[in-house]
Amino acid sequence: MSEQTPQPRWLSTEERRVWLRLSAVMELLPAALDAQLQRDAGLTVTGYLTLAMLSEEPTRSLRMSELGARSNASPSRISHVVSRLEKDGWVRRERSADDGRGQVAILTDAGWDKVVATAPGHVERVRQLVFDPLEDGDVADLDRTVTRVLDVLDPDARFAATALAREV
Q1: Out of 13, 62, 97, 142, which residue is the most buried by the measure of CB atoms under 10 Å away?
Q2: Measured in whole angstroms, how far is the alpha carbon of residue 38 from the centre of its chain?
Q3: pLDDT of 1
């Protein structure tokens, strides 16, 4: 007797429509944000998030692993982004004073100036693309929806956004 292969769980008409729209958003939103940041500041979204996360710390510094988690970047990606930001003079790396093994990324004064100058335009673009089209209650609905998806995609809460969503 041969085992039967289970039938795929095909998407319903509504699920297919939502999936196609979501995949379009996943393609178009990062490109639109990158375009604005490249044009106005010579940064990518991940580069901007890296500077922003460092700027929010009282010491303007974070261990590389924590910086990656807060910037939604893998260890290799955050290392690459920080290298680029170092070349621009916006970040520097030092050995961790705590244990001497890990590395800490530190926002330079030039990096602080860069993020302060870039933030208003970026926030306005995020507002235009994501929040302005929404109606009352949509933000809470979107929050619940993306939190559920994040829980599946990041079950170990490697990214800070996932851990933050679980605290609410």
Answers
A1: 62
A2: 16
A3: 55
What is the mean pLDDT, run by run of 10 residues, along the chain of 168 residues? Answer: 82 96 96 97 97 97 95 94 98 86 94 98 97 96 93 89 73
The helix or strand, by DSSP H or E, that contains position 159, with its residue range, turns out to be none
- From the CB of residue 157, how many other CB atoms can be counted at a distance below 10 Å? 15
Residue 151 DSSP one-character state: H
What pLDDT is stored for residue 93 in this prediction? 96
Query: What is the CA 11 to chain-centroid distance, rounded?
Result: 28
List % helix, strand, coil for the chain (3-state, nearest 5). Answer: 65, 10, 30
List phi, psi (to 5°) of 145: -65, -50
- Full-model pTM: 0.88
Q: How far is CA 57 from the centre of its chain?
A: 17
Contact between residue 38 and residue 127 where contact means Cβ atoms under 8 Å apart: no
Nearest-CA neighbor of 146 among 58, 83, 55, 72?
A: 72
pLDDT at 70: 94
For residue 91, list its beta bridge partners.
107
